[in-house]
Amino acid sequence: MPSRRPVLSAAPTRRRERRLLLPLLVIIGAVLLIVLAIAAQGGSQSAEEGLGGDAGEIVEGETEGPDLTEFERRDPADPLAAGPVDAPVGLIVFSDYQCRFCAQWNLQTLPAMMELADAGELRIEWRDINVFGEASERAARASHAAAKQGQFWEYHELLFANGERRSDAGLTDQGLTELAASLGLDTAQFTTDMNSAETAAEVARNAELGINLGATSTPVFLLGGQPISGAQPTEVFLEAYETARAAAKS
Q1: How is the chain split into domains, by residue range?
Q2: Among the listed residues 98, 166, 165, 175, the one whose alpha carbon sits nearest the alpha carbon of residue 137
Q3: In terms of CATH architecture, what is 11-249?
Q4: Running DSSP on this structure, what letter comes out for residue 83?
Q5: What is the spatial order of strands in the sheet that 220-223 belongs to?
């Protein structure tokens, strides 16, 4: 899978972005909460369900909501993105490295989305919201540290290997560093980056965006500016992509 060497946004840019987005987030967040609540009837996995729910409970369906494409950053320096910045359709993924439904989606549906990204038709932006707590946040910081060495997607795949989430023991500092070593990363630099204030701030920024938009369970997606709640079948995402692609052409 493609990887990019990141250049994280400067603090003034983050502050300016927050000032511009907050008033709109208040309004759109309230609307999106309603949309996701409707879509989640049988479709969304809450934090509790993510630990013990049955993926068979997922229900297909589409719910039309507000256009949220403006929250696609389209930043060429984004270390957690794939596909061209000017792709006709964007996909934002709100995920958690302790969410088993996220791991299943990563195995079953992400490859189809990556094919579209590789073809220049889709921009994917990964955002971890860490609803499961400390281990999730630590894993997100580790993925950022790997991204700083140009290995985000490779490291990401190890965290969700074979469509399974790693145990808490696998998300300790030692376990995460061992994963970095298996990719041949500079583990000393990896540790420094994983524990840096800059990385923590960027992880918090991504989580804040998801929470402010109402994504309090995982996985949640914005595809072509429309919300999809839960690890829906791949066909749901492909159909949503086609709809967004057609709208982009019109």
Answers
A1: 11-249
A2: 98
A3: 3-Layer(aba) Sandwich (3.40)
A4: S
A5: 81-82, 122-128, 89-95, 220-223, 226-229
Backbone angles phi, psi at 42, to 5 degrees: 90, -5
The contacts of residue 213 (CB under 8 Å, 6+ apart) are 25, 28, 29, 32, 68, 71, 94, 222
DSSP secondary structure of 206-222: HHHHHHHTT--SS-EEE
Q: For 152-202, write each residue's pLDDT tens digit.
A: 999 999 999 999 999 988 999 999 999 999 999 999 999 999 999 999 999
To 10 degrees, the CA torsion angle through 168, 173, 179, 180?
150
Whole-angstrom distance, CA of residue 150 vs CA of residue 5: 4
Q: Are 227 and 220 within 8 A, CB to CB?
A: yes
pLDDT in tens, 3-26: 443 333 344 444 444 444 444 444
Q: How many residues does the chain have?
A: 250
Number of other residues whose CB lies within 10 A of the CB of residue 140? 28
Beta strands in the chain (DSSP E): 81-82, 89-95, 122-128, 220-223, 226-229
Can you read off the two tokens belonging to residue 167? 């145990």
